[in-house]
Amino acid sequence: MRIVESKFVKSAVKPIDYYPTAFAEIAFAGKSNVGKSTLINTILNRKGIAKVSNKPGKTRLINFFEIRFKIDKEELDGFFSFVDLPGYGYAKVSKTQRDSWKKMILTFFENRQQLRGVVCLVDIRHKADPKDILMIEMLQSMNIPFMIAATKSDKIPKSKANAAIIKLKNGLNLGDQQIFACSSLKKRGIDNILNWITDQVIDLN
Ligand SMILES: Nc1nc2c(ncn2[C@@H]2O[C@H](COP(=O)(O)OP(=O)(O)O)[C@@H](O)[C@H]2O)c(=O)[nH]1
Ligand SMILES: [Mg+2]
Question: In a mutational test of the pocket of ligand 1, which residue from 33, 36, 58, 193 has the highest number of ligand atoms less than 8 Å from its CB?
Answer without folding.
Answer: 33
